[in-house]
Amino acid sequence: MTDTSIFTEIESSVRSYCRNWPVTFARSEGDSLITEDGEEYLDFFAGAGALNYGHNNPALIEPMIDYIRGSGVLHGLDMYTTAKRDFLTTFRDLILQPRDMDYKVMFPGPTGTNAVEAALKIVRKVSGHQHILSFTNAFHGMTLGSLSVTGNSMKRRGAGLPLTNSSKIPYDDYFSGAVDDFIWLERVLEDSGSGVDKPAAIIVETVQGEGGLNAARMEWLRALSDLCQTHGIYLIVDDVQAGCGRTGTFFSFEEAGIKPDIITLSKSISGSGLPMAIALISPELDQWEPGEHNGTFRGNNPAFVTATAALKKYWADDVFSKEVQQRGYELHGGLSRIAAKYDGTVRGRGLLTGIHFSDPEAAGKLAGACFQRHLMVETSGPDDEVLKVMPPLTISKDRLAEGIERIEAAAAEVLA
Ligand code: PMP
């Protein structure tokens, strides 16, 4: 193994993924990462969802190389550029219009948490209410506003101050079917004596990527959306992780047929792993003063170039979407086989699927054994009790099957 001493010597103790995968990667291509020693690892992690189209996908990278060679603008704040025009035009034509969606596109800073912060600010500003409701086991990012609507206690403690103006409500199936959906919320919203302040918004992930791959049912999402409409509460869908095709459709809520007031996207919106984020804001909510939420890196133009190329290559028709859905069935089938053998249950949707084990140690042990077999796969959930499988959406049928076989072999070794 090559020298990793500089990392342990001077890189902050906050580093985490590298602790489970203690090799030094030098190159990456498609569904693989390659170490300095030339060892290849199959990637069932995909940059935590930032690499839906794989590593260094030539259909995305070539246009960016041409753009840079042609002295295209790299940094542009929120100035008008040809790269931004191309992105907005393509996004409108291939994503919004075919889905009959009417939204303003806001470019916050280039991270998921920035899109969430922007969403929280604008719903508070427009509604005049401060309170935000979010769900048990939610994850929305590490800045203070996003943390206040995030569940994980270790991450919340990191804030170092009280995280206020938000409350947690139970996500779908939190009580294992024992309690009717939204029964408490409906009651307190109707009761002027409940003491529960009217919220500005409810923020939700359709599949809780970090919180253990809980996947909301479509009828639950529809009921949530109806409840928001009835009570004049804005609905924010945080599609940072589940969006951009991860669940088989571009937006993760398409099957539910709901119309959120705000949608946040980041991770794979650039397609290439370059930082980029957007908040889609319904036009009547777009009441920002110019510059009221700004940031130096809102105009990452190479990201606009790769984002445009990704939309044109994969979202001009439904061929890719159908392929992703097919891979999702295959993944679900493979993981079900493993789950049945080792006291687990399959969770998630599309290519954001995993296994929840009743033994809280199992997922971590299994992920470690997978790495020994040159397969990168992470864990999720409050106690890391879920093996989280998230390959690039572009993975071939054979490579997906190969990865599942490696998980199976690893499970036979450490879980039997
Ligand atoms: N929202 C969701 C649903 C996420 O999964 C994440 C990242 N895991 C974020 C927000 C935060 O994104 P970022 O790390 O880019 O700030």
List the helices and strands and how they pair.
Blueprint: H1 5-10, H2 17-20, E1 25-29, E2 32-35, E3 40-43, H3 46-49, H4 58-69, H5 82-96, E4 104-106, H6 112-127, E5 132-135, H7 144-148, H8 153-157, E6 166-169, H9 183-190, E7 201-204, H10 218-231, E8 234-238, E9 262-265, E10 278-281, H11 301-314, H12 319-341, E11 344-349, E12 352-357, H13 362-372, E13 375-376, E14 378-380, E15 386-389, H14 397-414
Parallel strand pairs: 3-13, 5-6, 5-7, 7-8, 8-9
Antiparallel strand pairs: 1-2, 2-3, 4-10, 9-10, 11-12, 12-15, 14-15
Helix pairs in contact: 4-11, 5-11, 12-14, 13-14
4'-deoxy-4'-aminopyridoxal-5'-phosphate binds at residues 48, 111-113, 116, 139-141, 205, 209-210, 238, 240-241, 266.
Offer a quick outline of the entry.
With 416 residues, the protein is α/β, with parallel strands linked by helices. 37% of the residues lie in helices and 15% in strands.
Describe this entry's structure for a reader.
This protein has 416 residues and is an alpha/beta fold. The protein is 37% helix and 15% strand. The protein folds into two domains: 5-57 and 319-414, Aspartate Aminotransferase, domain 1; 62-314, Aspartate Aminotransferase, domain 2 (3-Layer(aba) Sandwich), CATH 3.40.640.10. The strands form three sheets. Strands 4-10-9-8-7-5-6 form a seven-stranded mixed sheet, sandwiched between helices. The protein has a four-stranded mixed sheet with strand order 1-2-3-13. The mean pLDDT is 97. The structure holds 4'-deoxy-4'-aminopyridoxal-5'-phosphate (PMP). 4'-deoxy-4'-aminopyridoxal-5'-phosphate is lined by residues 48, 111-113, 116, 139-141, 205, 209-210, 238, 240-241, 266.
